[in-house]
Backbone:
């Protein structure tokens, strides 16, 4: 049965300026909150195929992160602590405790950071290709270089518009996604490329993007920190990865998967946006995980 997807918005005031955050609600049942990855081309739309499947069992809500999405974005100094505050305000707005939180990419790291501080905020957590360090901090092994701040200042300035324009050319986006994001080299066809390019074209997009790249939204520095956070949770945790992850991201996921309370499942295909590239396999893994939890609770 197909469920109508309703578009809505939440005006968030926690960043000092009002930010309109887009949401998609689909399905009926207990609440499942879906958090997309954070990147230059990420929006809640990447979750749509997975959301449509989960909507058979849940009232699903997918949401754009403040400073991201495909609408114009006011400037604000985004960081991980601010995103945790956003999640707190969002759950208050939704006025229902999620039965399930599905968090992808950097959204997974932020969800972990939030649940570390609010351990009873949901019933179950599914981490899809979880990351928690931006590209430049990953290259420097977690060292926050002084020139990261200088780079943000350049991109925030009028000169940054031109630099950002060069960074979002089709060849640059294709190189990025083929190396890190999608396993299938031809998955990003012309129509999908056009959709991805609409994201960084939005006014103000460069401010959030450069902060992601330079680590402002990093929930943790080292994989051991993320593992310690997940080991402190009192909810069941599923972690999904594949053998095709970028090397350092894959190493981090392996460390997280070794936590005793994590059900680590390796799917055969996909990379960092595996939920968009392989939604059926991701859905099946989440559905089986939740069914097993329900059976254990009854028996």
Residues:
């Amino acid at each position: 049965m197909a469920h109508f997807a309703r578009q809505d918005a939440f005006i968030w005031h926690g960043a000092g300026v009002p930010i309109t955050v887009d949401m998609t609600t689909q399905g009926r049942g207990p609440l499942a909150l879906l958090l997309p990855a954070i990147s230059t081309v990420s929006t809640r739309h990447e979750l749509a195929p997975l959301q449509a499947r989960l909507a058979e069992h849940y009232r699903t809500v997918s949401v754009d992160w403040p400073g991201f999405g495909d609408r114009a974005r006011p400037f604000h100094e985004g960081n991980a602590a601010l995103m945790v505050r956003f999640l707190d305000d969002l759950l208050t707005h939704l006025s229902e405790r999620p039965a399930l939180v599905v968090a992808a990419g950097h959204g997974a790291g932020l969800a972990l950071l939030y649940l570390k501080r609010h351990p009873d905020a949901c019933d179950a957590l599914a981490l899809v290709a979880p990351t928690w360090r931006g590209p430049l901090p990953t290259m420097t092994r977690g060292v926050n270089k002084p020139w990261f701040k200088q780079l943000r200042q350049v991109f925030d300035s009028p000169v940054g518009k031109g630099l950002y324009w060069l960074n979002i050319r089709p060849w640059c986006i294709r190189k990025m996604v083929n190396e890190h994001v999608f396993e299938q080299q031809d998955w990003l066809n012309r129509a999908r490329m056009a959709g991805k390019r609409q994201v960084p074209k939005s006014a103000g997009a460069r401010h959030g993007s450069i902060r992601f790249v330079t680590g402002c939204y990093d929930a943790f520095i080292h994989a051991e920190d993320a593992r310690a956070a997940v080991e402190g949770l009192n909810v069941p945790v599923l972690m999904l990865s594949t053998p095709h992850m970028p090397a350092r991201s894959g190493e981090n996921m392996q460390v997280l998967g070794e936590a005793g309370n994590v059900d680590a499942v390796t799917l055969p295909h996909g990379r960092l946006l595996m939920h968009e590239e392989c939604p059926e396999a991701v859905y099946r893994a989440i559905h089986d995980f939740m069914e097993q939890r329900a059976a254990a609770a009854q028996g």
In short: The CA atoms of residues 6 and 119 lie 30 Å apart.
